[in-house]
Design goal:
485 residues, alpha+beta, 5-stranded mixed β-sheet, 14 helices, globular
Length: 485
């Protein structure tokens, strides 16, 4: 089973020798980021900074920095535990298209153990301490100034809760949050995100938008906030499905929203229509700084927390970073759902070096001319996969997770006059390479073996790959010790 809260996970990691307490004073200005980045890239342990300069809260970092720790946090042996579970729900009849995705998630709603469970306010650990008015002071929370050219201090793992002003459908998202002052937070809501739409609808109606941001949430909830779910699918339903039990939630004290009862800290406030402040620059998960832009500014009216709270954050920047395992979890979890939309797919891989959205490597069981191109366009039409800038299509016998194998196919199997597809379309809000914001060029590489019906008419047809003689290979394997190698 997944862990119910952050602190129980940290205790388990410490028992395993996979958490290091740092008792020396550390500065959230650049120093913490430098420490965490080095430890993460070395495959090191989770960190608990017990003495953060300027704050009385311990700071948990690198908690999900390895696949091992994220799997432990979610109560899984392998990421395929969830993808197999989702795949099982979709059988025996696989639905198709986006309607099929919603129908598949609708099946989760019939599972009585996964919808959120409401907890009375007096019983929620996250509301043991309630601060309002002049007692609200965000400077008590250890925000990080991670990279030299950042525009300020940021909270990087606050889970943002909003709801659609007209439908009431809630959204849970993970966005960076710049601390402007002790009562103001900058909301970096990218153009394609559901919370940005909620704010735009509220502003159009001349209404304030309630917002609640939770820190140190149960691991399954933290993961669900990053999952690319359709807008009408409840992240808390999915979190319950992942962790195998209902998520306990509590009503906020000053806004009409619910948050995890077992979170560490929650900040509540209202967004006024049109109230914006410059946000950024920020060293983002792309490995580059994103520029300063105006984003909504949230005024905080209330802070609730545990009696002895701790904060959780992450460091992003040039990969690999802590969000790598989160991206790999999404890649594996959502393979069965992507196959609903694009049933031609055998497997796919989203390389961390591409920020998980810049490149998709896809294998197919090629059956007809231009099958690869059909798959490319289907992926570009599949929900958030529409932001993919490069799609490499390989044959089913290629291991999409072996980048050496993939590059050998892509570099050797491609006639770029015929096998390169270039289109224009939407790109990620953070993409700096497009010559204008929000849209740009994309490419698809057909690295599959080519068919005569595709125009490959050279004598002898497509060549066979070099392979060992099976009998000889088997004999060598059996005699390997004899060779003394």
């Amino acid at each position: 089973m997944a862990y119910d809260d952050l602190r129980s996970l940290l205790r388990a990691l410490e028992r395993d020798g996979d958490l290091k307490r740092v008792k020396a004073e550390v500065d959230p200005y650049l120093e913490v980021g430098e420490i965490v980045d080095r430890v993460n890239k070395a495959g090191g342990p989770a960190l608990l900074f017990e003495n953060v300069k300027g704050s009385d809260m311990p700071l948990a970092m690198n908690v999900y920095g390895t696949d091992r720790r994220l799997l432990k946090a979610l109560g899984l042996k392998a990421y395929t535990d969830i993808s197999d579970k989702i795949g099982g729900l979709l059988k025996p009849e696989l639905p198709q298209g986006f309607v099929g995705v919603r129908e598949a998630f609708g099946k989760l709603g019939t599972m009585t153990h996964v919808p959120p469970k409401k907890v009375k306010p007096g019983l929620a650990p996250v509301q043991e301490v309630v601060l309002t008015g002049d007692d609200v002071d965000l400077d008590r929370l250890p925000a990080l100034f991670t990279w030299p050219e950042d525009g300020g201090s940021f909270f990087n793992l606050g889970l943002t809760h909003t709801k659609h002003p007209e439908t009431g459908v809630r959204n849970l998202g993970l966005y960076r949050l710049q601390r402007h002052d002790k009562r103001t937070i900058g909301m970096h809501w990218q153009i394609h995100k559901d919370s940005a739409n909620h704010y735009q609808v509220a502003a159009r109606r001349g209404e304030r938008l309630p917002v609640a941001i939770a820190f140190g949430c149960p691991p399954a909830v933290t993961y669900a906030s990053t999952a690319p779910l359709p807008g009408d699918i409840d992240e808390y339903l999915f979190a319950g499905f992942v962790q195998g039990k209902r998520v306990e939630m509590v009503d906020c004290r000053t806004v009409p929203l619910q948050v995890p009862a077992n979170a560490e800290v929650v900040i509540e406030g209202w967004l006024e229509p049109g109230e914006m402040l410059p946000e950024g620059p920020f060293g983002d998960h792309t490995g580059f700084y994103t520029p300063q832009e105006p984003f909504p500014a949230l005024t905080i009216d209330c802070v609730t927390m545990r009696e002895r709270p701790l904060l959780q954050s992450i460091v992003v920047g040039r990969p690999p970073t802590e969000d790598g395992p989160l991206g790999r979890a999404t890649e594996r979890f959502f393979l069965p759902l992507l196959k609903i939309i694009v049933p031609d797919i055998v497997d796919y891989h989203l390389p961390e070096s591409g920020g998980f959205h810049n490149c998709a490597i896809v294998s197919i069981d090629k059956k007809y001319p231009k099958h690869a191109q059909k798959v490319m366009h289907a992926i570009w039409g599949a929900h958030m996969m529409s932001l993919t800038k490069l799609i490499v299509v390989v044959d089913a016998d290629c291991d999409v997770h072996n980048l050496h194998e993939v590059s050998w196919r892509a570099l050797g199997n491609t006639d770029y006059a015929r096998d390169l597809t270039v289109v224009e379309g939407p790109v990620d809000h953070l993409d700096h390479s497009s010559y204008q914001q929000f849209w740009g060029g994309k490419a698809g590489i057909d690295a599959t073996r080519k068919l005569p019906t595709e125009g490959y008419t050279r004598d002898g047809g497509w060549p066979e790959m070099v392979e060992s003689d099976p009998e000889t290979a088997d004999r060598v394997t059996k005699r390997w010790r004899e060779y003394g190698l």
